[in-house]
Amino acid sequence: MNIKKFFINLLQGAAMGVAMIIPGVSGGTVAVIFGIYDELIDAINGIRRNFKKSVSLILPVLLGVIAGFAALTVPLGYALEYAPLPTVLLFAGLMIGSFPKILGEAKDRGFKARYDIWCIALPALALLGISFAKLFSTAGAADLSPSMPVYNYFLLAVISVFASCALVVPGISGSMIMMIFGFYDPLIDALKGITENLGHNVLVLFCAAAGVILGFFSIAKLMKFFLTKFPRGTYWAIVGFVAASIPALFITYPANFPSAPFDGMQLGLGIALCVAGGVAAYLITLFADKKLNK
């Protein structure tokens, strides 16, 4: 195994893990930005045929996802609690700066307006619909306390299967799916307070992890089919998902942070972070492209 490539994939996985925590952001989008999306889908689907080669990519990426998710859950939680607007604007800037890279990937596969405009519009409308569903949802938080009903363990695993889309389908936010069904905050609380009621919280996290792993491999097979049979349309659908995920951050903002403070200082800091994040993301993708084309 190439040690340098292992650590690069580990860092890329960590970025995907961080993206999983953020409502409106997708780990799959991060994989597209880093240029490992197709390779990762191939590795997942070819794990039986090329076990060693597939594991050499999947293992560091998954370890990175776990490390990134675990390491930033608490600090990101504080950032979203005390400075939600600047934090969300930073995420928006990062996505805007990386969008030219995703658009370029789709353009490389051609464009047929008669068909591909629908490939862009339908996923975008679906994602915006999910965002508005969250905004107007009256569903409360799910019960993941030690006294929760037994069926909630199974329900959590099922919802986690859908949330795993965040790792495989660019533009789909697993955190947003969790939020819509009321599992996001209780799950983060279980992770932050894992030492309290250790057995129960470990079981809760196990059910979530089992659902994510099952969905990860199942949905990857579906994406492989689309990338093989309809590569052009699939990439334009990815463009639609990613483009819609930027306004989705702001559509869901009032629902995610109903009592968030709003003042000139937060707005000014947020705009500065948005610009800085956009420039940084654009330069990183530009640098990555130059390295790949050498």
Instruction: Enumerate the spans where pLDDT stays under 50 for 5 or more consecutive residues.
Output: none
What is the count of helical runs?
A: 14
Mean pLDDT, all residues = 81
**Order of SSEs, N→C?**
HHHHHHHHHHHHHH
Tell me about the biggest sheet? Answer: none
Helical content band: over 70%
Count of separate structural domains: 1
**CA-CA gap between termini:** 22 Å
The total beta strand count reads: 0
Structural class designation: mainly alpha
Cα-atom radius of gyration: 19 Å
Broad shape: globular
Range of strand content: under 5%
In short:
The protein has 294 residues and is an all-alpha fold. The chain has helices at 3-21, 27-34, 37-45, 51-82, 84-107, 113-136, 151-163, 165-168, 174-180, 184-192, 198-229, 231-251, 253-256, 264-292.
How would you describe this protein?
41% of the residues are buried. The protein is mainly α and 294 residues long. The protein has helices at residues 3-21, 27-34, 37-45, 51-82, 84-107, 113-136, 151-163, 165-168, 174-180, 184-192, 198-229, 231-251, 253-256, 264-292. It contains 14 helices and no strands. Helix 1 packs antiparallel against helix 2, helix 6 (113-136) packs across helix 9 (174-180) and helix 7 (151-163) runs parallel beside helix 11. The chain has one domain (3-292).
